[in-house]
Write a structure and sequence with these properties.
Layout (H helix, E strand, L loop, with lengths): L1 E8 L8 H10 L3 E5 L2 E6 L3 H8 L8 E6 L11 H11 L1
Antiparallel strand pairs: 1-3, 1-4, 2-3
């Protein structure tokens, strides 16, 4: 399985997207959500399958992007547990 970044720009308040957030969790073997508009998930892929699974949960004017990740990442400002999760799961 591969790791994917899901990021979005939603036009409605986040509380109206609870079904989208649950769907992201449901299709993921594991997931990380430490940024408001980004998730990292482990999924068998491809990215088009992830997008297809999430499309019914977004508004037509929302923006949604799924990117397959490689084995490198860098970040700042995260608590230790979040940083360790990224390091362990992307290496």
């Amino acid at each position: 399985m591969s790791m994917y970044l899901i990021t979005y720009e939603l036009i409605r308040p986040a509380k109206e997207y609870l079904a989208l957030f649950q769907q992201i969790k449901d299709i993921s073997e594991i997931w990380w959500h430490n940024l408001n508009s980004a998730w990292i998930i482990k999924h068998k892929g491809p990215s088009t399958a992830i997008l297809r699974a999430l499309k019914p949960y977004v508004h037509p004017r929302d923006k949604l992007l799924v990117i397959k990740l490689d084995h490198e990442a860098a970040g700042i400002g995260f608590h230790t547990q979040a940083s360790q999760w990224v390091k362990i799961n992307l290496e």
